[in-house]
Structures are given as structure tokens and as C-alpha cells.
């Protein structure tokens, strides 16, 4: 990372993804696996760095071989590890691993091994570089980071520091990233999202995640436009609603754009949302209009959906432009 403010800082999950090399096979029958860098906030950072941006990630790993792998992999992708902490005094906090099953085109069950807690949920407020957080052009956090203390409190300390240095060209993004296994119920997640939103100007989520944010229920009862309207009414200035096979909607108080689905042969849908997030940040950083930004991000997500890995598969700008040109 440069000595000046970063283009993007993300905070949240990091770990190791263990993916089967046998497609369409139940996990209990798989015999061959591959190891990859994982964790949503980490993947978003890698995606943005792959596009040439100055990026860092705030996370923590275990003091174990997988932790060494995660730090090395993050650095290898050109992302700063200055704020990648190590749980040296907590042997009870190993680096998380995540397994998945691969049943294209739309069934990719995830199995998280990060209970009862994970190193990235044990970051204390005093361990944060609040100056760097306040100065970065985009600060990206996730709802998963709100599911436990001390992570929840640290997120609010960071947002408060950022609010005190607010500037119109800076973005504070919340990835709605609702993972039911990390919460007692959707209503609890909804309450924490409501506490966070006064600090947030940009939200990103799929239909279920946006529904949890707006209604407190995982069952989707509102249209994408109604969800976007409700999020704007809650004070954000950009609401991005992923509509699955219907594409992606982005709404501001003055503009509304839909990016239609990109035709791709899906290999593994996991990581597509993180590629989308990194590319979305790239468009915002470079002042692209909303149409260009959304199509660019949508194509980045589609590109990764056609690959096995997440972080390793993040596209370059040329990769995305080629996919855009073929639409």
C-alpha cells in the first residue's frame, strides 16, 4: 500500500477455502480438494487490487500454518497485510476453513468452520488504525462483522472515526452479507443493520439480504424496486440489489439502472459476489457513471462464476472488458 490514503480498505472474514476438485459429488464422497484464499472481505480486497487499486484488508488469522498461508496469499495478490493481525495469544482461535459442494449451475452449499468464534471477529477497537480508516477513499465492511463482540463494537468505532472525517467523494459501504448460521435469527441481524445504517452511504445485497435489512425477515415479500426505495429512505445514497437470474438493480435518489444477466457457463457461483464488490469499488473510485459501473461489476461477477476458485480467479480489467464486449 502507498504512504497516502488507500483507495479501499475492507474489514472482515479471512480464511482458507477448501474446494472439491470433483464437480457434482457430495462432500462426503469427494476425495480430491484444493486450497484457496477465502473470506468475503478478503476476496473483495483481492478483486479490487487485481484491477490496479491500492488496497488493504483488516482481519485476523490464527497463529497456525493456515494463518501463514492466508497472510502470504493476501500479500501475493498485492493487498497490504499491514492490518492483518495474528492471534498469537489465542490458540483457541485457529484460522477458519470453509468447505463447499459444487452442483452447478445454482447449488453451492457452504460449511463454515469458525465456531464458537473466529480470529476476525476478535479484533478490538484499540487495534484499529483509525487514521487509515478515516482517510481511505472507500471503506467496506460486512454484516457478518456485526454478529459478535468485540467485532461489532470495533465496527462502530471505525464508522464513528470515519464519520468525523466525512467527505463527499468518500464511500462507506456495507455488504449486507447475511449468513443465517452466524445469527440467532433474521430479526437480530435487522436490528444491528439498523444501528449501522446511519454511518453508511452505499449498501450491496441480494434479495434476501436486502429483505432482512428492510423488513427483518429473510422471506422476500417486496419487489427489488421497493427494497431499493426502502433502503434509500433509510438514508443511503446508493442501493445495489442483486436480483439473481434477473440481473442487478442500482438506485440512487436521482437514477435507477438495471444490468441484465451475463451469459456464462457456471462452474462455481461462490466468489462471484466478491468479484462484483471489488469491481463496483473500482467503478466508484474511477468516477464511472452508474451504468458503466454496474455492468462492469456484473460482468466481473459472471467471470468468476465461470471459474472454480474465488480469490485466484479475480479478473483483470481486460478480462472484464472482453466479457462486456461479448454481451
Average pLDDT over all residues: 95
- At the fold tier of CATH, the topology name is UDP-N-acetylmuramoyl-L-alanine:D-glutamate ligase
Separate helix tally: 10
Oligomeric state of shown chains: single chain
Supply the CATH class.
Alpha Beta
Determine the fraction of residues in helical runs and give it as a percent range. 25-40%
How many domains is the backbone divided into?
A: 1
Q: What percentage of the residues does DSSP assign to strands (E)?
A: 15-25%
Strand order of the largest sheet: 5-4-1-8-9-10-11-12-13
CATH architecture tag: 3-Layer(aba) Sandwich
N-to-C span: 35 Å
Biggest beta sheet summary = 9 strands, mixed
Measured on Cα atoms, how large is the radius of gyration? Answer: 18 Å
Q: Which structural class is indicated by helix and strand composition? A: alpha/beta
- What's the total number of strands? 13
| Cα shape | globular
What is the N-to-C succession of helices and strands? EEEHEHEEEHEHEHEHHEEEHHH
Low-pLDDT parts are none
Structural summary, described in words:
By secondary structure, the protein is an alpha/beta fold. The chain has a single domain (8-325), classed as Ribokinase (UDP-N-acetylmuramoyl-L-alanine:D-glutamate ligase), CATH 3.40.1190.20. Helices cover 34% and strands 20% of the residues. It has ten helices and 13 strands. The strands form two sheets. It has a nine-stranded mixed sheet, sandwiched between helices. Strand 9 (171-175), helix 5 and strand 10 (202-206) form a beta-alpha-beta unit. The longest helix is centred in the last third of the chain and has 16 residues, at 290-305. The mean pLDDT is 95.
